[in-house]
Model the fold of this input.
Amino acid sequence: MVASNSFRNLSNTDLQHVMQICEQLHLADPKDSFLSHCHTVMDQAFACVHHSSEIYTLNPFALTELENPTVNAHWLEIFNRHVHEHPYVELMLGNQPSHLEVLQQEMSLKEFRKTALYNEFYNKVQGQNHLWLAYRDKNELLSCVFLRESEFSDRELSMAGLIHPHLESAWKNWKQMRCLNRELGILKDAVFQTPEEEAASAQLRRMIDTLTSRQCDVVERVATGLDNQQIADELKISVLTVKKHLQMVFQTLDVHHRTQLAAQWHQAYSISLYQLNG
Done:
Protein backbone atom coordinates (compact mmCIF):
# COMPACT_ATOMS: atom_id res chain seq x y z
CA MET A 1 0.00 0.00 0.00
CA VAL A 2 1.09 3.56 -0.60
CA ALA A 3 2.02 5.34 2.61
CA SER A 4 -0.12 8.22 3.78
CA ASN A 5 1.07 11.76 2.98
CA SER A 6 -1.17 13.34 5.60
CA PHE A 7 0.26 16.55 7.02
CA ARG A 8 -1.87 16.02 10.13
CA ASN A 9 0.65 13.44 11.35
CA LEU A 10 3.48 15.98 11.26
CA SER A 11 4.18 18.92 13.52
CA ASN A 12 5.69 22.16 12.23
CA THR A 13 9.04 20.98 13.59
CA ASP A 14 8.66 17.69 11.69
CA LEU A 15 7.81 19.53 8.48
CA GLN A 16 10.80 21.81 8.83
CA HIS A 17 13.04 18.79 9.43
CA VAL A 18 11.66 17.00 6.38
CA MET A 19 12.20 20.05 4.17
CA GLN A 20 15.80 20.30 5.36
CA ILE A 21 16.35 16.65 4.42
CA CYS A 22 14.73 17.21 1.00
CA GLU A 23 16.94 20.25 0.41
CA GLN A 24 20.06 18.27 1.33
CA LEU A 25 19.05 15.52 -1.10
CA HIS A 26 19.29 18.02 -3.94
CA LEU A 27 22.81 19.10 -2.93
CA ALA A 28 24.43 15.80 -4.00
CA ASP A 29 27.78 16.33 -5.72
CA PRO A 30 27.89 14.28 -8.97
CA LYS A 31 31.58 13.56 -8.32
CA ASP A 32 30.53 11.56 -5.25
CA SER A 33 28.32 8.49 -4.97
CA PHE A 34 24.64 9.40 -4.84
CA LEU A 35 24.02 6.41 -2.56
CA SER A 36 26.62 7.59 -0.08
CA HIS A 37 25.09 11.07 -0.02
CA CYS A 38 21.55 9.68 0.13
CA HIS A 39 22.52 7.35 2.97
CA THR A 40 23.96 10.22 5.02
CA VAL A 41 20.92 12.45 4.49
CA MET A 42 18.19 9.83 4.82
CA ASP A 43 19.58 8.48 8.10
CA GLN A 44 18.37 11.74 9.62
CA ALA A 45 14.79 10.97 8.64
CA PHE A 46 13.96 7.68 10.37
CA ALA A 47 15.10 5.86 13.48
CA CYS A 48 16.33 2.51 12.19
CA VAL A 49 18.76 -0.29 12.95
CA HIS A 50 19.82 -0.79 9.32
CA HIS A 51 19.51 1.35 6.22
CA SER A 52 20.43 -0.07 2.84
CA SER A 53 20.65 2.09 -0.31
CA GLU A 54 20.98 0.23 -3.61
CA ILE A 55 20.85 0.76 -7.36
CA TYR A 56 19.84 -2.11 -9.63
CA THR A 57 19.67 -2.66 -13.34
CA LEU A 58 16.44 -4.43 -14.24
CA ASN A 59 17.13 -6.08 -17.59
CA PRO A 60 19.18 -8.09 -16.85
CA PHE A 61 18.48 -7.83 -13.13
CA ALA A 62 21.66 -7.05 -11.21
CA LEU A 63 22.85 -5.05 -8.21
CA THR A 64 25.20 -2.33 -9.47
CA GLU A 65 25.77 -0.18 -6.37
CA LEU A 66 25.29 -0.78 -2.64
CA GLU A 67 25.62 1.33 0.49
CA ASN A 68 25.05 -0.75 3.61
CA PRO A 69 27.65 -0.13 6.33
CA THR A 70 25.74 -1.80 9.18
CA VAL A 71 25.35 -5.36 7.83
CA ASN A 72 28.55 -7.40 7.71
CA ALA A 73 29.56 -9.89 5.03
CA HIS A 74 28.27 -12.88 7.02
CA TRP A 75 24.71 -11.54 7.09
CA LEU A 76 24.87 -10.37 3.48
CA GLU A 77 25.79 -13.88 2.42
CA ILE A 78 22.66 -15.24 4.13
CA PHE A 79 20.55 -12.45 2.62
CA ASN A 80 21.84 -13.15 -0.89
CA ARG A 81 21.14 -16.84 -0.48
CA HIS A 82 17.44 -16.25 0.27
CA VAL A 83 16.70 -12.90 -1.39
CA HIS A 84 14.35 -14.52 -3.92
CA GLU A 85 11.87 -15.04 -1.03
CA HIS A 86 11.44 -11.30 -0.56
CA PRO A 87 8.05 -9.91 -1.66
CA TYR A 88 9.81 -6.81 -3.04
CA VAL A 89 11.61 -8.85 -5.68
CA GLU A 90 8.42 -9.29 -7.71
CA LEU A 91 7.69 -5.58 -7.39
CA MET A 92 11.21 -4.65 -8.47
CA LEU A 93 11.11 -6.91 -11.51
CA GLY A 94 7.57 -6.00 -12.51
CA ASN A 95 6.10 -2.82 -13.91
CA GLN A 96 5.21 -1.39 -10.54
CA PRO A 97 4.56 2.35 -10.29
CA SER A 98 7.17 4.61 -8.70
CA HIS A 99 5.91 4.83 -5.16
CA LEU A 100 6.61 3.87 -1.59
CA GLU A 101 5.84 0.40 -0.29
CA VAL A 102 5.58 -0.55 3.39
CA LEU A 103 6.12 -4.21 4.12
CA GLN A 104 4.08 -4.45 7.30
CA GLN A 105 1.02 -3.37 5.27
CA GLU A 106 1.51 -5.94 2.51
CA MET A 107 -0.96 -8.84 2.31
CA SER A 108 2.00 -11.24 2.00
CA LEU A 109 3.47 -10.35 5.40
CA LYS A 110 2.21 -13.49 7.17
CA GLU A 111 3.66 -15.69 4.44
CA PHE A 112 6.90 -13.73 4.44
CA ARG A 113 7.37 -14.30 8.17
CA LYS A 114 7.52 -18.03 7.47
CA THR A 115 10.42 -17.75 5.03
CA ALA A 116 14.08 -18.52 5.71
CA LEU A 117 14.97 -14.97 4.64
CA TYR A 118 12.83 -13.51 7.41
CA ASN A 119 13.84 -15.98 10.13
CA GLU A 120 17.52 -16.41 9.29
CA PHE A 121 18.27 -12.83 8.31
CA TYR A 122 15.77 -10.09 9.26
CA ASN A 123 14.80 -11.61 12.58
CA LYS A 124 18.45 -12.09 13.53
CA VAL A 125 19.53 -8.53 12.65
CA GLN A 126 16.53 -6.90 14.43
CA GLY A 127 15.08 -5.73 11.13
CA GLN A 128 11.63 -7.33 11.20
CA ASN A 129 9.83 -4.20 9.99
CA HIS A 130 10.68 -2.55 6.68
CA LEU A 131 10.13 0.85 5.18
CA TRP A 132 10.94 0.89 1.47
CA LEU A 133 11.32 3.91 -0.81
CA ALA A 134 11.93 2.94 -4.41
CA TYR A 135 12.07 4.77 -7.71
CA ARG A 136 12.38 3.29 -11.18
CA ASP A 137 14.04 5.31 -13.93
CA LYS A 138 14.06 3.45 -17.25
CA ASN A 139 16.26 0.39 -16.67
CA GLU A 140 17.49 1.42 -13.23
CA LEU A 141 15.94 1.13 -9.81
CA LEU A 142 16.95 3.19 -6.78
CA SER A 143 16.01 1.45 -3.53
CA CYS A 144 16.23 2.67 0.08
CA VAL A 145 15.21 0.21 2.78
CA PHE A 146 14.98 1.02 6.50
CA LEU A 147 14.87 -1.84 9.01
CA ARG A 148 14.06 -2.05 12.72
CA GLU A 149 12.20 -4.17 15.27
CA SER A 150 9.24 -1.83 15.89
CA GLU A 151 6.67 -0.82 13.30
CA PHE A 152 7.00 2.54 11.55
CA SER A 153 4.47 5.08 12.77
CA ASP A 154 1.93 7.07 10.73
CA ARG A 155 4.09 10.12 11.35
CA GLU A 156 7.11 8.39 9.78
CA LEU A 157 5.03 7.14 6.86
CA SER A 158 3.90 10.71 6.25
CA MET A 159 7.52 11.85 6.33
CA ALA A 160 8.44 9.13 3.83
CA GLY A 161 5.61 10.17 1.55
CA LEU A 162 6.86 13.76 1.52
CA ILE A 163 10.50 12.81 1.03
CA HIS A 164 9.89 10.30 -1.75
CA PRO A 165 9.30 12.70 -4.71
CA HIS A 166 12.38 14.68 -3.65
CA LEU A 167 14.41 11.47 -3.64
CA GLU A 168 13.23 10.83 -7.21
CA SER A 169 14.09 14.29 -8.52
CA ALA A 170 17.40 14.45 -6.61
CA TRP A 171 18.52 11.16 -8.18
CA LYS A 172 17.52 12.40 -11.65
CA ASN A 173 19.31 15.70 -11.11
CA TRP A 174 22.41 13.88 -9.88
CA LYS A 175 22.48 11.64 -12.96
CA GLN A 176 22.05 14.62 -15.28
CA MET A 177 24.83 16.51 -13.53
CA ARG A 178 27.07 13.45 -13.72
CA CYS A 179 26.51 13.25 -17.49
CA LEU A 180 27.25 16.97 -17.86
CA ASN A 181 30.43 16.58 -15.82
CA ARG A 182 31.57 13.74 -18.06
CA GLU A 183 30.88 15.81 -21.16
CA LEU A 184 32.75 18.72 -19.59
CA GLY A 185 35.69 16.40 -18.92
CA ILE A 186 35.77 15.43 -22.59
CA LEU A 187 35.62 19.11 -23.51
CA LYS A 188 38.49 19.90 -21.16
CA ASP A 189 40.65 17.21 -22.75
CA ALA A 190 39.88 18.48 -26.25
CA VAL A 191 39.84 22.25 -25.85
CA PHE A 192 41.27 23.52 -22.59
CA GLN A 193 44.64 25.17 -22.61
CA THR A 194 47.88 24.16 -20.94
CA PRO A 195 49.36 26.53 -18.33
CA GLU A 196 51.78 27.87 -20.96
CA GLU A 197 48.99 28.49 -23.47
CA GLU A 198 46.90 30.16 -20.79
CA ALA A 199 49.79 32.49 -19.88
CA ALA A 200 50.09 33.53 -23.54
CA SER A 201 46.31 34.02 -23.74
CA ALA A 202 46.35 36.16 -20.61
CA GLN A 203 48.99 38.38 -22.17
CA LEU A 204 46.87 38.75 -25.31
CA ARG A 205 43.83 39.66 -23.19
CA ARG A 206 45.81 42.37 -21.45
CA MET A 207 46.77 43.83 -24.83
CA ILE A 208 43.19 43.63 -26.09
CA ASP A 209 42.02 45.44 -22.95
CA THR A 210 43.95 48.48 -24.16
CA LEU A 211 41.71 48.73 -27.26
CA THR A 212 38.75 51.06 -27.34
CA SER A 213 35.25 49.58 -27.14
CA ARG A 214 34.66 50.36 -30.84
CA GLN A 215 37.95 48.71 -31.81
CA CYS A 216 36.89 45.63 -29.82
CA ASP A 217 33.56 45.63 -31.69
CA VAL A 218 35.46 45.55 -34.98
CA VAL A 219 37.88 42.81 -33.86
CA GLU A 220 35.04 40.60 -32.58
CA ARG A 221 33.42 40.72 -36.00
CA VAL A 222 36.68 40.03 -37.79
CA ALA A 223 37.03 36.96 -35.56
CA THR A 224 33.61 35.70 -36.69
CA GLY A 225 34.65 35.99 -40.36
CA LEU A 226 32.85 39.17 -41.42
CA ASP A 227 34.42 41.35 -44.11
CA ASN A 228 34.82 45.12 -43.82
CA GLN A 229 31.53 45.92 -45.54
CA GLN A 230 29.56 43.54 -43.29
CA ILE A 231 31.26 45.02 -40.20
CA ALA A 232 30.42 48.54 -41.38
CA ASP A 233 26.78 47.56 -41.95
CA GLU A 234 26.44 45.94 -38.49
CA LEU A 235 28.09 48.83 -36.65
CA LYS A 236 26.49 51.47 -38.88
CA ILE A 237 29.81 53.09 -39.71
CA SER A 238 31.69 53.56 -42.98
CA VAL A 239 34.07 51.02 -44.48
CA LEU A 240 36.82 53.65 -44.25
CA THR A 241 36.23 53.91 -40.48
CA VAL A 242 36.44 50.12 -40.17
CA LYS A 243 39.79 50.18 -41.99
CA LYS A 244 41.11 52.94 -39.71
CA HIS A 245 40.10 50.96 -36.62
CA LEU A 246 41.83 47.87 -37.98
CA GLN A 247 44.97 49.86 -38.73
CA MET A 248 45.18 50.96 -35.10
CA VAL A 249 44.43 47.44 -33.86
CA PHE A 250 47.18 45.93 -36.04
CA GLN A 251 49.68 48.36 -34.53
CA THR A 252 48.55 47.77 -30.94
CA LEU A 253 48.53 43.98 -31.15
CA ASP A 254 51.51 43.75 -33.54
CA VAL A 255 49.66 41.70 -36.16
CA HIS A 256 49.91 42.02 -39.91
CA HIS A 257 46.65 40.66 -41.35
CA ARG A 258 43.11 39.89 -40.28
CA THR A 259 43.62 36.09 -40.18
CA GLN A 260 46.36 36.55 -37.59
CA LEU A 261 44.12 39.00 -35.71
CA ALA A 262 41.23 36.50 -35.63
CA ALA A 263 43.55 33.73 -34.43
CA GLN A 264 44.84 35.89 -31.57
CA TRP A 265 41.31 36.87 -30.54
CA HIS A 266 40.21 33.25 -30.37
CA GLN A 267 43.35 32.29 -28.45
CA ALA A 268 42.75 35.08 -25.94
CA TYR A 269 39.14 34.04 -25.28
CA SER A 270 39.26 30.28 -25.68
CA ILE A 271 38.12 28.16 -22.71
CA SER A 272 40.51 28.25 -19.80
CA LEU A 273 40.62 25.47 -17.20
CA TYR A 274 42.05 27.87 -14.65
CA GLN A 275 39.36 30.48 -15.19
CA LEU A 276 36.65 27.83 -14.89
CA ASN A 277 38.02 26.24 -11.73
CA GLY A 278 38.76 29.63 -10.22
Q: What stands out?
A: The chain has a mean pLDDT of 82. Strands lie at 50-58, 61-67, 101-102, 129-137, 140-148.
